[in-house]
Amino acid sequence: MNDQINLKKSKLRTPDIESLATSDTLHNVLSVLPNPDPVLRKANKSQTVYEDIMHDAHVMGELRSIRGSLLSFEWSIQPGGEDAASMRAYEITKRVYDRRPSTNSRWPDLIWDIWKSTLRGFSVQQLKWAAMDSVWLPGQVISWPNHRFVFGKENDLRLRTASEPQGKELTPGQWLVTRHMPDGANPYGTALLSTCFWPYVFKHSGWKGFVKFCDKYGIPWAVGRYPMGTSEPDINELLKGLAGMVEDGVAAVQEGNAIELLEHQHTGEPLHAQLINLCNAEMSKALVSSTLAIEQKGQGARAATETHDNRGRRNIKADRQMVTDTLNEMNEWIALVNVPNAMPAKFVFTADVEANPDRVRYLNEARLSVDVPVPWAYKFLHIPMPKEGEDVLPRRADLGQQMPAPGGGEFNAPTNGDWHEFSENEVDAAIVAMVDLVRDVVGDAPTFEAMLSALQDIFFDMDTTSLQEALERAMQAGLLEGINDATEEN
Q1: What is the C-alpha to C-alpha distance for residues 434 and 467, in angstroms, rounded to an integer?
Q2: One-character DSSP codes across 295-348
Q3: Contact yes or no for 465/403 (Cβ under 8 A)
Q4: What kind and span of H or E run contains 476?
Q5: pLDDT of res. 413
Q6: DSSP 8-state symbol, 102
């Protein structure tokens, strides 16, 4: 029996696998791994070219949009557990976030620096520990430039110094490393700006050609005609006058010479402009996974907008998780140093600062078919549950509650997936109830703006477009009913 157990254990042992340090794909004489970025290697460029790409007007516009989406979310520090040790770790950790991460930085700046690992492949922050009131805390959290770091043969981060250009080992607990889409062969991560390199190069080459095109064909050509037998000095004098027209708009020529302005006719977008737009679209695909503003023309704008928004939300969600993991690593070190047996506090993105009507609409639709737990609903809407006796804002009017169904009952949610089919009398009664409700609201409103606000309170789960469509259908139904009544009378 013991022999069988030992045999099974031996099969479970992981065999030794060749590491990067002994791989045939690397030179054993190297103590660090070169950045395997294929674009930079083929173009013979360093990561400094990323700064040039970031300052492209189109790229900067996309980055500002991403930054706005990322920083629009509120965040908080939450306890990792309810025991005394975890609460102690939470109170200690909260002191770090109650002050600036460093003298010349704020938390939005640090969050953005961490996120920029997606642009450059990885980002590094240093934790400078200091004793504060009998506890050890990161007194400074400082971002470092990427060119100061390399990865060793074991995928370990190393710091380049003047005395050790191949990089020296880093002390655990003093550095935070965030990497974007790394793998076993590429510890440097995948840089989005690397994928923008060739579109950036071609775009700016296209700009040069486009400027020449505009300079050559954007201004009408001045053509001078002279009679046969005109002397060469007179011809040169005519050319000088035509050249003066290009710069000054006026010229003096001898009598008998004719001048024409020939405008170049071309249809469609110039090839140079097409190249620039194509390159902008490619860079947008890399940065925001969408090219809505550039490529979407004509039909399908609404569907494209929804696809664009969905992709953007998924990207931002993944980016927030990356930032969260990095800051929670710092929280783990704070707990380990000060309260070793505690669950570390958690950095959490809580809610988008801007209202999200999609969540409200989704919740209202879900209530029609399933029972939604109240605690989950509050969490889904990022709203804390009110405590007993706590003052709360009055709820907005619910159309389903204010419009009684025929017979005095309320509209009930369908059960077992079966939808109730209303009779003609029931529909008429429902319409009358809705009209009476709207009439009361309109009659009591002192101003037009107040009337609109009250209508939106009634249709709280409908956006403006839906409200407009509903009113249009009601008006059309009334018009058709009037036409039908007039026909019957005649």
Answers
A1: 13
A2: H--SS-HHHHHHHHHHHHHHHHHHHHHHHHHHHHHHHHHHHHHH-TTSPPPEEE
A3: no
A4: helix 464-489
A5: 40
A6: B
Handedness of CA 228, 232, 236, 238 (dihedral sign): negative
What is the per-residue pLDDT across 34-52, written as a single tens digit (0 to 9) for each? 787 777 776 677 777 888 8
Interval 2-6 mean pLDDT: 51
What is this structure's pTM? 0.62
pLDDT in tens, 186-239: 899 999 999 899 889 888 887 777 777 666 666 666 666 776 767 778 777 777
Beta-carbon contacts of residue 222 (< 8 Å; ≥ 6 apart): 242, 245, 246, 251, 259, 260, 261
- The H or E element containing residue 32 is strand 32-33
DSSP assignment string, 260-271: EEEPPP--S--H
Over the stretch 387-415, which tens digit does the pLDDT of each residue have? 888 888 776 544 434 433 333 433 344 44
162: pLDDT strictly greater than 60: yes
Please report, as a single letter, which amino acid is at residue 9: K
Number of CB atoms found within 10 A of residue 85's CB? 16
CB half-sphere exposure, 297, CA atoms < 13 A: 2
Q: Which residues make Cβ contacts (< 8 Å) with residue 249, sequence separation at least 6?
A: none
Distance CA(451)–CA(455), nearest Å, equals 6
The pLDDT of residue 398 is 47
Provide DSSP, 343-371: PPPEEEEEEESS--HHHHHHHHHHTTTSP
Structure token digits, residue 231: 């002397």
**Residue 62: how many other CB atoms lie within 10 Å:** 19
Across the range 371-389, mean pLDDT stands at 81
Q: Are 148 and 160 in contact (CB under 8 A)?
A: yes
Structural contact between residues 175 and 126, judged by C-beta atoms closer than 8 angstroms: yes
Domain spans of the chain, in order of start = 22-215+272-354, 219-263, 399-489
Bridge partners (DSSP) listed for residue 258 = 225
Q: Which two tokens stand for residue 60?
A: 């900067």
Q: If you average pLDDT over residues 65-75, what whole number do you get?
A: 89
pLDDT, mean of residues 154-164: 88
Separation CA 61–CA 57 (nearest Å): 6
The identity of residue 1, as a single letter, is: M
